[in-house]
Amino acid sequence: MNILFQAIYNHFSATTGSGFYSDVSGRMYPNFAPQGATFPFCVYFSVTDDNDLDFSDEREDFLLQFNIFSQNNSGLEAGNLLESLKTMFDNCSLTVTGWNHLQFQRGNTYPNGDFAQSPPVQGYSVEYNVLLEKARS
Amino acid sequence: MTVEWFGDQVLAASKLILNSVSKEVAEDVMEDAKKILKQKAKTTTEKGLLNQFYVEKSKFKDGGYVTYCQGPKDWTAPYHASFLELGTFKDEAKPFMRPATKKNKRPANKKYQAALDKL
Q: Which residues contact B93 (CB under 8 A, 6 or more apart)?
């Protein structure tokens, strides 16, 4: 759903001087990162989109995932990224054209690093449950 | 006055039924996960995961069943099911377990309800 992705990006880029945007230097990519992307960066994508939640297709229930990666011998940067991601997105309020945004709730967080790299890639995968309801005119 | 208490039998019967439905649901999740993976898998290695699914009784105190892909009892190298599910810093995610689980949430509720209605 492009408008949700757009709304997430708008929320992300609304504050550029500090917080998560600044921590990843604006590098947040939909679906996958370009080859050789500079660290640190973030990738966000939809894991599931379930539109039969409540008897009609007027609601959309998404499971979104944010992957954050840092290449660093220390896990501190990845940990800080995780915290600033949470600060930015936990229970955030999005503006999604044509939809009422009901919920943006964090779910599971999984470590997602690659210690075979040198320096090691450290990261996390963070799930968010997102609920939208079609705006009625 | 005599009071006959069948609570223990009812509880035992419910547990038996719920256990059997849990297994059925776990198998449904496994079949759907395989279907999703089949669509998304591109490489031989990714397709190789299709032979590494299984369902097993959970070790949790309250029981239930777990659907595994490359679980501890059946996996062959390279280990990459979780990389595919979650994505990595260089590879796009191709989730298959979580979509299958979510797809089966409502049907599972209906199955449990139908089984309990038969009690």
A: A32, A45, A47, A65, A67, B84, B85, B86, B87
Contact between A47 and B95 using a beta-carbon 8 Å cutoff: yes
In chain B, the residue whose alpha carbon lies closest to the alpha carbon of A42 is B89
Residue B55's nearest CA partner among B65, B45, B43 is B65
A62-87 tens-digit pLDDT: 999 999 999 999 999 999 999 999 99
- Give the ipTM of the model, two decimals please: 0.87
What is the set of domains in chain A, with CATH numbers? 2-134 (3.30.2000.30)
Considering only the beta carbons, identify the residue of A48, A112, A114 that sits closest to B102: A48
A54 touches chain B (CB under 8 A): no
